[in-house]
Specification:
- The protein is 7% helix and 40% strand.
- The protein has 164 residues and is mainly β.
- It has two domains: 28 residues, no CATH class; 103 residues, Immunoglobulin-like.
- The strands form two sheets. It has a four-stranded antiparallel sheet, with no helix packed on it. It has a three-stranded antiparallel sheet with strand order 3-4-5, with no helix packed on it.
- Strand 1 and strand 2 form a beta hairpin.
- The radius of gyration is 25 Å and the shape is elongated.
- About 15% of the residues have low confidence.
């Protein structure tokens, strides 16, 4: 019996032909950090606490000024929290550009790569939250968005009613 390695089909053109391209161009399909150049969406954890919801969004390598967090009402009247980020960077290796070059004499690049990343995640908020009290904190590659619940939506301790 012969075992054949199963390799699922990819929907992306670049992924389908990446072994061919990598044999010709090296690792040209991956950026300087070794990741695929396609758009990625960061992973999130959403936790419900007694008095708030907490969204944890993993986004290492970004600075807090790259994030845009907004709230907008959708057509159904529900608040939608949107988290966006854009990051661009360039890395150069062994570029030999001279200051006295003419416009017709272009520099000889050994390797020069540009990277552009962006993502957008949206979450429909329940009516039990207070949209005015939302605040965010970015620390150690994790964006934490605290979404407080309205006072009437918070779980309360059961109280005992005395019988008279």
């Amino acid at each position: 019996m012969t075992l054949v390695k199963f390799k699922p089909a990819h929907t992306s053109f670049a992924h389908s032909f990446s072994p061919l391209f990598e044999s010709v161009w090296g690792n040209a399909l991956t950026d300087v950090r070794g990741r695929d150049n396609s758009t990625t969406v960061p992973a999130v954890n959403i936790a419900e606490h007694q008095d708030a919801f907490l969204i944890e969004l993993a986004s290492p390598g970004l600075s807090k000024d790259k994030f845009i967090i907004s709230i907008k009402a959708n057509a159904a009247g529900h608040n939608v929290l949107t988290i966006k980020a854009e990051n661009s960077q360039s890395a150069e290796t062994n570029t030999e550009a001279k200051s006295s070059e003419s416009a017709f004499n272009a520099p000889r690049y050994t390797r020069r790569e540009f990277s552009y990343e962006s993502f957008e995640r949206s979450f429909t908020l329940p009516t039990t939250v207070d949209p005015d009290g939302i605040h965010a904190n970015y620390q150690d590659g994790i964006l934490l968005v605290n979404i407080p619940k309205r006072e009437e939506a918070k779980t309360k301790e059961p109280r005992t009613i005395t019988i008279s």
